[in-house]
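Materials and Methods. Structural model of RING-type E3 ubiquitin transferase. The 235-residue sequence of RING-type E3 ubiquitin transferase from Halovenus salina was retrieved and submitted for structure prediction as follows.
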Amino acid sequence: MVILPILLFGGTHLYRAFRLRQNDPDDIQTVRTASDGLVEFTGTAAELNGTVTGKYSEQECLAYAWEHHDRDAGSTGDNRESNYHMEDRGTEGEPFHVRDETGTVGVDPTGANIYATEDEDEWKNRERIHKERRIEADDRLHIYGHKQTLVERQEGLETESTYVGSNTHGMGKLGKIRTRPHITVGHLLGISSDLHITVGGESDAIKRFGVIGGFFTALGLIQFVAAGLVIFASL
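The predicted structure was written out as tokens:
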């Protein structure tokens, strides 16, 4: 039954939006001294270990997310996004610093969900759509991810002994499902990272989680009602 996984995924995002709304982000000094685990904080991005070049924009940045959409087979409509489907997506980047008035912490963007709706670049024609969301130096960021203490030096993080990143990057879909079964739909769609980086403030992150959660919850409820009507009609 696909309805329950959809509702769980939507509900998880709505709960996350609620939690973020209830709790203020920590300052970076608190993040650095906290026990390893989930943290939320804001700060300004700064270069740590060089930059990368955007896949489509060819602009230098600290990290970026990209999407490739192909036109649906047989579609003869206009260039509305509903006539396209996502073919591939990914995230590229180098570890970077995030700073506030209390300190600095490293962030490894590998495998992150990067949100930057207002700064998203798009290239579209009748056959395909390319999208790119970049993190650049001096961007204001909201980070929601796992604080981790390094036992030994890690490539790209220079002398950092603490950083924030993903706990599940590198796992296959089956491994992610076993680790976090309540968001199976996200694992299958490739949008289930446990590291969320939003270009903007906490309100932007809350809005993003709320929109995603609302969409999937509504979708699940619609399917639930439709399934109920089918069962009722068959009686």
